[in-house]
Amino acid sequence: MSSERTAESERTLLLRNDPDGQIKYALSNAPEAEPLSELVRVSGARWPIERCFEEDKSELGLDHYEHRSWPAWHRHRRRVFLAHLFLLRLGLKYKKSPGTDAAPGAGAAGVESAASQAGLELRAEVRSLSPAT
Length: 133
What we know:
Blueprint (H helix, E strand, L loop, with lengths): L11 E6 L5 E6 L7 H24 L10 H25 L18 H6 L15
Antiparallel strand pairs: 1-2
């Protein structure tokens, strides 16, 4: 491994101050030309994905596989994900008031609607950090 700095080794640190006062961190290796709005959108999209995996582990047994082959592991994951999709579809079909179990600020269509639902304005700022920091 080389300690030389190259374009491929550059990273961007994203800090997000949530309305509840928590600061969220994300590290990105996206090219410098990538728009900041896209970096913010992608870093915010991680939360629903992580929650999905957490639910699959705790409620549907994603973490209870004891297979010794790659195909068996994939079959197990595929069945858990299909079961999750089935339960989500049932929940949407029979739910009395849609949106009550949704995550705070996460809309059904994605993360982009979070700020508009809360009536918040998204602010982004780019700062260059010196190599010594």
